[in-house]
Amino acid sequence: MAERADGPDSLAEGDPAGIGEYTLLARLRESAGAVEYLAVDREGAKVSVLVPRPRPAGDPALRRRFAAEARLAVAAAGPWVPAVRESADGHLVTAYRPALALGPAVARYGPLPEHALRVLGAALAEVLVRLHPLVEAHQGLAPHTVLLGADGPRLTGFGPLAAATGIDPAADGAAARLTLGFLTPEQVAGRVPGPASDVFVLGLLLVYAATGAGPFAVATPDAVATADPDLDGVPEGLRPLLSRCLEKDPARRPAPAAVAAGLAPGGAAALLAAHWLPGALVTELSAQASAVMALEAAGYDGPSATAVATQVAASAPGDASAPDAPEPPRRGLPARRALLLGAVGTAAGLAGGFALGRNAPRAPAPAVATAAASGPPARVQGAPPAVLWHYRAATTGEQALVWNDQVLVVPLIGATVGLDLRTGKTLWTKDIWCNATPVPVSGDLLFVPTFNRGLVRFSATTGTARDTDPDYAMETDGFAGQNGTRVWFRAPDKDGVPHLVCYDIAQRSTVWRTPMGRTPPGRGGALRVTPGRESVYVQRLRDPADAKEKDLGTAVFSALDTETGARRWERWEKEAWADLPEEPRSWMTADGTLYTDEGHSLHARDVKTGGERWGGDARTSLDRVSSPRGVLLRDDVSLFVVDANGWTHLVDPRDGTIKRTTFPAVPTGAVARGDTALVPGPSGSPLYRVDWGAVTAIDPEDGRTLWAFQGVTEQQQEQEGLLWQVASGTRTAVFARRFGRDYFALPVG
Q: CA-CA distance, 562 to 538, in Å (whole number)?
């Protein structure tokens, strides 16, 4: 286990002077995967900036790993985790507090006493309780990712890259191997680590903190897999619990919540109320705080530099008439050792406390520190709210539905599951195999076509099937449209001719059935139904595999009478618009407008007449809409368009004038690598742009980007090309990938 440098050190040759808005002052810590810098923002507030080393930054797989761990740091907001200021491409900014990593702390000052061990272990276990709904295994615990500060321990590592003590220089790309400081029996056996793996590593970490050594005489894979742990030196009161944490069988280890309760029955914060660190560590932290103040005064000419320098001088004992600080230079920082030695006098005068900002208290105030640690983190630009819960389904299925802001109905292959929207706990599981997302009927009644029962109405609160209609069993391919209590779907008649069916889900009766018109035999391509005021507009996309349709264009359009299903008109796309490109994207709205991607720009056409409403040579600001990828008309007054650059445009649907353009909060390459769509949320909630890379929340009033959610598990990031999907209530939205198994609930209202 390699000890890392800790505390402020001079910037190295080649280090940048700044990153974004942050001016770098010094290096704080280094690991195999990243360098952590001390920096100040424009207003002089001190922050920590974590930047990947050149090898991770230059390797796509390691770069994705760094980004995933940065996202998890944002999602893990809460006590015992540094508050994230900014999570951007290539760096992570957190609030700065004087701290010493556990490894150097034990190496320099010896093992921690039992009281400190209980605070440390309980705090880390509480963080694991928050993390495990987000990831199968955290894998970020290591002596260098755990920091000791006056306001308690803090976990700074959120995955194997952070915990790595080395990266194999001979490996390339995704094959790069991360050498973990602490292994588990399941890793030695080649199995995938799970939540219990983090408990084992927590046990290893606490034994190290208690004794200065690991529980195995020689830390080899064989010893980890077979040897009994040596707990000599561990306080007697902790041995039974740590012995259970170090069980070889993951099933026999306690859950993180049980570990936290066993170490601190009243919670880690309650134990922290008593001064928790040994005096030698307090002195080291005091010296570090003073050194950082001096470093700031020497290297940063900002609004607080003189004030901080004066404050440091005034704190020194026996020096009531300290001279005014000189005008600080911008560069030429003093060495770390000189800073620390020069700060000893100041540290002695801090009476065991240290400066945690511009206003430095004389002594630690544990109650205040606990409140600060448990409060909400600073909001990150473009970052989503913290994940409320994570559910991993047994199988994949159709898109979920939020019912009445209370239940998430998840239609899975072979079964349907109801989850408590507030907690994510399973309420019921029923043998209902849906082939579409259920739609509300009335009360708690939902309606859905199924593979095993025909058309089913069932309770959202209990999952109990109320009634079934077997007439369309195994004949529907999901809903093509829905409006109020009416749904539209495609089903063949007894001769196999495809019909469009209008069905009243409240009355459980067919309103009308209409032949699909000039449709080749078989199911054909995708079907979209857009209910209008007087007509139901039907758009059937061509089946690319059907040779009979090859020369007829990409779609056929129909207008059917809303009440009778009688065909008012129908035309093949190439008949109406001979100059359309071979594969245009198109979207139809309830007012009979067809928005198309023609010549890599947006056009609006009247479906009935084929006439152009706007676009083409008449467009002005629409030149900025490059290859539209998604269109959504909201309340007939706001047209939202997302283009291939990832830009979202708020457009006036009357003339095509762009009112506002906003840029993506995530890399734009996500749009180009797959499909994308715009999804409306309930009134008062955001609307969402979804693609394979992220779900982006957009203000429905002015089109501003609010935040973007990219998922927090490595498995999610590997499912490239699969769209995110949204099931939204007024206060909570649930995000999952199409054909994925992971569901993430976020507060949105």
A: 11
Distances (CA, A) of 256 to 135, 321, 323: 14, 53, 53
Give the global pTM: 0.56
What CA–CA distance (Å, rounded) separates 540 from 132?
44
CA dist., res. 696 & res. 686, Å (int): 9
Angle between helices 256-263 and 195-211 in degrees, nearest 10: 30
* Cα–Cα distance for residue pair 476/491, rounded to 1 Å: 5
pLDDT in tens, 132-165: 888 888 888 989 899 998 889 999 888 887 777 7
Token reading at 148: 């000791």
How far apart are alpha carbons 649 and 643 in whole angstroms?
8
Question: What φ, ψ does residue 244 adopt, rounded to 5°?
Answer: -70, -35
- In angstroms, the CA 703 to CA 696 distance is 11
What 8-state DSSP symbol labels residue 397?
Answer: B
Three-state SS for 581?
coil
CA 134/CA 614 separation, integer angstroms: 46
Lowest mean pLDDT among 49-53, 465-469, 510-514: 49-53
Convert the pLDDT of each residue in 6-29 to its tens digit. 567 778 777 888 888 888 888 888
Query: What are the DSSP calls for 346-395, one per residue?
Result: HHHTTTT---SSSS--SS--HHHHHHHHHSPPPPPTBPPPPP-EEEE-SS
34, 28, 26: which is closest to 55 by C-alpha?
34
CA distances 631 to 554, 586, 596, 651, 689, Å, are: 18, 9, 9, 10, 10
At 268-284, the pLDDT tens digits run 988 886 678 888 888 88
Q: Give the other-Cβ count within 10 Å of 217's Cβ.
A: 10
β-sheet bridge partners, residue 440 = 446
**Helical spans, DSSP H, in 167-304:** 185-188, 195-211, 221-226, 239-245, 256-263, 268-272, 279-299
| Residue 435, amino acid | N
Q: Is the predicted pLDDT of residue 398 greater than 60, yes or no?
A: yes
Report residue 425 as tokens. 């706990």
